């Protein structure tokens, strides 16, 4: 398991709730290394991201977790993120989770 506190390379921390199958979410759990796309309300663009969950290696549909997020395109997000900003995690066109930024890192 990755130590959440020692994962230093991150762009923001978020609380994320994974949707259940009845809500259109995944039917199976997400494993450590799961990399869905991020979608912010200020753009139609999707952003590739890596998430590290606090204290766990697997997330089940319906779970709410804290995660550190590292984006693949931080230059496109510079000065656009803020605490309280909502976003979704997507697998293609399917929204699998909803998140809210709780802490900003460095971009």
Observed structural traits:
single chain, 107 residues, mainly beta, Elongation Factor Tu (Ef-tu), domain 3, six-stranded antiparallel beta barrel, two-stranded antiparallel sheet, 1 helix, 4% helix
Summarize the structure.
By secondary structure, this protein is mainly beta. It is built from 1 helix and 8 strands.
Percent helix, as a range, is: under 10%
- Please provide the count of β strands: 8
Largest sheet: 6 strands, antiparallel, barrel
**What is the top-level CATH class?**
Mainly Beta
- Rg over CA atoms, rounded to whole Å, is 13 Å
Assign the structural class, choosing from mainly alpha, mainly beta, alpha/beta, alpha+beta, or little secondary structure: mainly beta
Report the average pLDDT across residues.
89
Q: Show unreliable segments.
A: none
CATH architecture: Beta Barrel
Number of domains: 1
What is the distance, rounded to the nearest whole angstrom, between the alpha carbons of the first and last residues? 25 Å
Instruction: Give the full name of the CATH homologous superfamily.
Output: Translation factors
Shape: globular
């Amino acid at each position: 398991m990755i130590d959440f506190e020692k994962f230093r390379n991150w762009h923001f921390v978020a609380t994320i709730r994974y949707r259940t199958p009845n809500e259109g979410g995944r039917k199976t759990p997400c494993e450590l290394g799961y990399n869905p796309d991020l979608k912010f309300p200020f753009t139609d663009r999707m952003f590739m991201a890596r998430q590290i969950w606090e204290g766990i290696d697997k997330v089940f549909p319906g779970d709410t977790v804290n995660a550190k997020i590292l984006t693949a395109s931080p230059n496109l997000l510079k000065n656009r993120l803020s605490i309280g900003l909502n976003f979704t995690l997507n697998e293609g066109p399917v929204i699998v989770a909803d998140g809210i930024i709780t802490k900003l890192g460095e971009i």
